[in-house]
Amino acid sequence: MTWLIRIENLEEGPGTFAEGLWRRAVSAGAYTPIEKRTFGIADDIYEAGLLLAYLAFVTFCEANIIDSLSLQRLLESTFKLDLQATREYCLADDRLLEAVKFLDLGDGAGWELLQAMLNPDFRKRPIAEAKILELESANSILCEVADVGYCLYYGCFVKSIKSM
Fold this sequence. Notes:
Layout: H1 7-10, H2 19-27, H3 33-60, H4 68-78, H5 83-91, H6 97-117, H7 128-138, E1 150-153, E2 156-159
Helix pairs in contact: 2-3, 3-6, 5-6
C-alpha cells in the first residue's frame, strides 16, 4: 500500500497520521502544513542516512562489531552528529577501518553525504533529486561499479552505463 501525504491530510489533526512525527516536527520549528511536510521528508532522509551508515559499517567491518543501536548512539549521543570526529574515532579502531576506507572513497564523498543526511537542522538536509542532479553535473561516483551493474551514487542506487 502506498501512502500519499497531502497538505489536507496534515491539517486533519495529529492523531490521524503520525502523531510522533508531527510532535517532532513542531519541536524542530515546523508549524505550518508545508513545513511539516518538509520535516517529514527530511526525517526520512535522516533515517536513510542512519541506514547508509549501518550498511557501510556492517558490510565492511568484522562480524558483530557494531549493531544498529550502538552505531546510532555513537553518531547521535557520543559524537553529536559530528562525522569528522566519528571518522577519527573509527580510524583508531582497526575493526572499523574498512568502513572508514569505504566512506573515504571519492575524496570522502560517503562522509560528506552522511554529514548532509544527518544534519541536525532538517531544513539543510538534501533531497535525493538535488543530490543526483549535483552529481550528474560533476560526474562523480562514490564507489566502483560492481558486477551487478549498480553503484552507490550519492545515496541512491542507479543502473550503471556498464550494465545497459
